[in-house]
Amino acid sequence: MSGNKLSLQQKRSLLGIAFIAPWLLGFIFLFATPLIKSIQFSFSKLTVDPTGFTLDGVGWANFNNALFVDATFNRVLTESVWDMVLNVPMILFFSLFSATLLNQKFRGRIIARAIFFLPVILASNAISAAEASGLINLVGDATAVNEMGQSGSQYNVMSMVMILSDIGLPLSFVDYIVDAILRIYEIITSSGVQILIFLAALQSVPGAMYEVAKIEGATAYESFWKITFPLVSPLILTNVIYTIIDSFSGSAVTQMIFTTAFTTQNFGLSAAMSWIYTLIISIILVIVGYVLSKRVHYN
Amino acid sequence: MQYQQAVRKEAKHYRVQKIRGKAADVLYALFRYALVIGISFIIIYPLLMKFSIAFKDKADIYNPTIYMIPVHFTMDNIRMAMQILDYFPLLGNTLLFVVVTTVLTTASCALAGYGFARFNFPGSNILFALVILTLLVPTSTLMVPMYLHFRSFDILGIIHLLTGKSGLNLLNTYWPSIITSATAIGLKAGLFIYIFRQFFKGMPKEIEEAALIDGAGGIKTFLRIMLPNAVSPMITVILFCFVWQYNDTFFTSLFMSELALMPTKVSSLAAQANALIPGMLGVGGGAGVKADPNHVAMIIDTGILLAIIPLILLYMVVQRYFVESVERSGIIG
User: Fold this and answer.
1) Which one of A9, A31, A299 makes the best mutation probe of the B interface by having the most chain B beta carbons within 10 Å?
2) CA distance A25 to chain B (A)
3) Nearest to A51 by CA among B148, B257, B312, B41
4) A145-181 pLDDT, tens per residue?
5) CA-CA distance, A21 to B183, in Å (whole number)?
6) pTM for this structure?
7) Interface predicted TM-score of the whole assembly (ipTM), two decimals
8) Are the C-beta atoms of B232 and B325 separated by less than 8 Å?
9) A102 Cβ neighbours under 8 A, 6+ residues apart
10) Looking at the complex, does the CB of residue A195 fall below 8 Å from at least one CB of chain B?
11) Per mean pLDDT, which range of A70-84, A245-259, A281-295 is the poorest?
12) Does A264 lie at the interface with B, CB-CB under 8 angstroms?
């Protein structure tokens, strides 16, 4: 009897492995192998020849070059990381805000949702690269184009800074907010997936909880902070991690790693750069994950 | 008497409260509409602008009184952009490529997601952690080894053994993307596996057990019972996969830079337009002849519009199911 059971279990195991077999093959040959190779590359000088490539070990020279010799890598790296640090809270705040907005019942909600998810469809490096030379962004000599540019930002930024600092907010915070407002398009377009994730989380909050809260006399404000926020908080961690990963998929560092490899043909240096980058991002992810998971409410 | 007065007072108080509450509701609704419409406008504005530019005559960009609706309505921009992009062959090519990779990715990710959700084999948790790892490692880290790998593609030296050559050069063919999507390791495949796993985990176990008792094997259960129920994660994954594949510049420029695919063409649109427009206008293509930058910009905007129109059409069709699938919380299960 027990032998029979074991064989059934083994059968199930085998079936399970069969299901993940395509992924497993891909992982071994197209992920793990390149990953190990890339470590190897970062410690060697790689020369490509018509049939394959040759490796000469150089020790830590590539890392040394990337960090201390190369003039721009450090700057580009810190800039990308700093951009990410600034962007993540804004995207997070905006996406949670939009998701709560879209989760409420109002007429035209379906259309609003369709529009809010549109950036997921349209976000593309190719398009943004081409767009940089398009008419909408071309503030040229034509008056029409100038006017188009002006109609986009008709309020005076300076006056806003004055008002906010007169209220008594610290100047760095004011800077941050103004910066956020000026980049609102960028923030909106990069928070489509995050809105989606938050919205899905909000849908799974049981409606009865809000009813109870309402009967007990809680205001909408209170029920947001006491019910919605704790229940959505595990997804904040997911979203932070997603946003961090997403923000470096098209960043300047990635671009630089690409050109180092394929334009200047310095494959070893490129591999070293990408490993430094990977390490920094892993450290950030570990810290963020640790800090947030302590505050997250799991039910 | 006193009692009645108290009741009346109470009723009045109640009515005032109700009116106040209603006013607050109306104000809030107005505020919400202002916000939603404002944000929607910011999202749609560039799209509207592109539509407007696509039908504008060259003369109209110098006319400051025109905001959105062109005076000299023309199809010239669209015609020129189509010619520069070689639009219909390009679109056909790209769509075929994207559809094939999307189907393969969805299939392999659904299989893997189901395998991880429902089977306990030794090391399954560690393997799933590795799925997450594939999401976390930046693609740029794998770039060079992958490039070299596909330049002389070989599995365990089989091709070397058979032909004596050092592998096949798969660069500038569709194979790199087809292979990576069939093995669930392509563009954001980790995320798709995660979505499927969460969904299958949430399905009641009893359905499967019933199927098992009725004599259906594991694969049959998956195809007949689990997949037909997995419509909502399926739509999410297919839409994401299609769109990201269609827009992807990273892998296409790495592996298939010489093939005519939409992302590579669009990113080189500016250079192409600058070079080709004078000739198309019949000015001649000498070194001294330069295209009007505003005109070039117009054509670029039109080209971008042409590139994203298939996506917008697709989104219009599936948008309803997509939003509904979010409603049924397909993402987190």
Assistant:
1) A31
2) 7
3) B148
4) 444 444 444 456 667 677 777 777 777 777 777 777 7
5) 8
6) 0.82
7) 0.80
8) yes
9) A109, A112, A113, A116, A195, A199, B36
10) no
11) A245-259
12) no
